[in-house]
Write a structure and sequence with these properties.
Oligomer: homodimer
Strand content of chain A: under 5%
DNA-binding region (chains A, B): 13-32
Protein name (chains A, B): Helix-turn-helix transcriptional regulator
Order of helices and strands of chain A: HHHHHHHHH
Number of helices of chain A: 9
Organism (chains A, B): Kribbella qitaiheensis
Number of domains of chain A: 2
Keywords (chains A, B): DNA-binding, Repressor, Transcription, Transcription regulation
CATH superfamily of the largest domain in chain A: Tetracycline Repressor, domain 2
Largest interface: A-B, 50 and 50 residues
GO molecular function, one term (chains A, B): DNA-binding transcription factor activity
Chain lengths: 189, 189
């Protein structure tokens, strides 16, 4: 993860990965069939800690939008993960990139999840009717992504969580519920 | 520009650039001292057509925010430029990337330009007082960036201009003025 985050996929070398984990390149290739296979493994590992894997366990309605803000807050304490995601998602649009379908599918899934949460929020009476849920969902995800690049370049100038919350409140014409509990590392939310 | 857009900087080869323009690698290096120097040249060329170079000529107040929406609309017809920007801006956060300072300075300049336009919009009575202009500016720029990656991966699903306009209207609590004129390719705005 560290190698892909600091080099990008295209510029990462198996030699560096092998050196970091104390294996030979052949040793790494014993566990992963190729550099592309290693990337898939890294993305799967990352997903295990991420909103994309919340599935049926995700908070409903505006509580899910609060969860996105909490994720942005949480992300400010894990620069490596943010960098990995920002670099690989953009790099995935280059020709023949092995993570292109991964990110295309991932964004479609995220948009669907936010759209579903917005529908729930309307049903719960949390947000007004008449919003274009597809556009709002697309814009919220875009804001979170774009903030990551600005924050990585100027961490002292950018507050990802504050800007995410401001954008979500504006786009939904609604306040967000409080976080379920103070964030504590290692504790399930 | 095409090589950096389709490969990223790290993965681009001078050999490919040279072949595209019908020169030897030595011929390319006669005009640009290094691959990093070539990247600087490409970014300077791109800027010549971009909002970052509007300077004192930029529209004032909400007319500038309309200009951002028009830029997003325009961008949907120039995939190569969008890809170049999306790939290089994110890649710039990798270790030792030669465009890191370029993008750090560029984002700071864009934020300042949008903040200035928001102050003008308040003075003109176009938007209400009490907005956090820094946060709103950061979020607008972030939305535009994030939309580019989603659009590059799914151009038929994402309307960059519509999502940008929705976000700006929501964040400023204001409508946007009409475009100064219908967009026409090749005509100065």
């Amino acid at each position: 993860m560290e190698t892909f985050a600091t080099r990008g996929y295209n510029n990462a070398s198996l030699a560096e990965v092998a050196a970091r984990v104390g294996l030979t390149q052949a040793g790494v290739l014993h566990h992963f069939p190729s550099k592309a296979g290693l990337l898939t493994g890294v993305l799967d590992l990352r997903d295990a800690t991420e909103i994309g894997e919340l599935g049926d366990e995700r908070p409903r309605g505006m509580a899910f939008l609060r969860h996105l803000v909490d994720t942005a807050k949480h992300n400010a304490a894990r620069e490596g993960i943010v960098r990995l995601y920002a670099v690989l998602s953009a790099e995935s649009v280059t020709d023949g990139h092995p993570a292109q379908n991964y990110f295309r599918t991932r964004y479609q899934g995220l948009r669907t999840m936010v759209v579903d949460a917005l529908h729930e929020a309307v049903e719960h009476g949390e947000v007004p009717t008449g919003l274009d849920h597809e556009t709002v969902a697309t814009a919220i995800i875009a804001t979170m992504d774009g903030l990551q690049v600005q924050w990585l370049l100027a961490p002292d100038s950018i507050d990802m969580a504050a800007a995410t919350e401001t954008t979500i409140r504006a786009l939904t014409h609604a306040d967000l519920p409080p976080s379920p509990e103070p964030f504590q590392a290692g504790r399930a939310g």
